[in-house]
Design a protein that fits this description.
The chain has 4 helices and no strands. With 99 residues, it is mostly helical.
Length: 99
């Protein structure tokens, strides 16, 4: 099970890198098309936007898993060590998107 999770994390990192590369290339191609060829290909901009959205969603999950999300620790710093893990869990649940 641990190897499967490691594989999925590596696949997730690969997807993040891939979407970043596609986003940069699509944006660059859009700028070149507008300025050099005077053509506006709208799907380059849409592709870059969708890549950015998916990259943000996947990176938020990866940051939550790694514990690198920005959080306000004023309450957890004051709470006793016994309640620290419960407070961290509460903070992570607050970081999840509200529906």
């Amino acid at each position: 099970m641990k190897k499967l999770l490691q594989y999925l994390q590596k696949a997730e990192d690969g997807i993040l890198i891939g979407t970043f590369v596609v986003m940069v290339l699509a944006s660059f191609a859009q700028v070149l098309n507008r300025n050099l060829f005077h053509l506006g290909i709208s799907w380059f901009e849409e592709l870059a936007r969708y890549c950015m959205v998916y990259m943000a969603l996947i990176a938020a999950e990866a940051g939550l898993r790694a514990g690198t999300q920005i959080s306000i620790t004023a309450l957890t710093d004051k709470e006793a060590e016994d309640f620290e893990s419960a407070a961290k869990l509460r903070d992570q649940l607050k970081a999840l998107p509200q529906q």
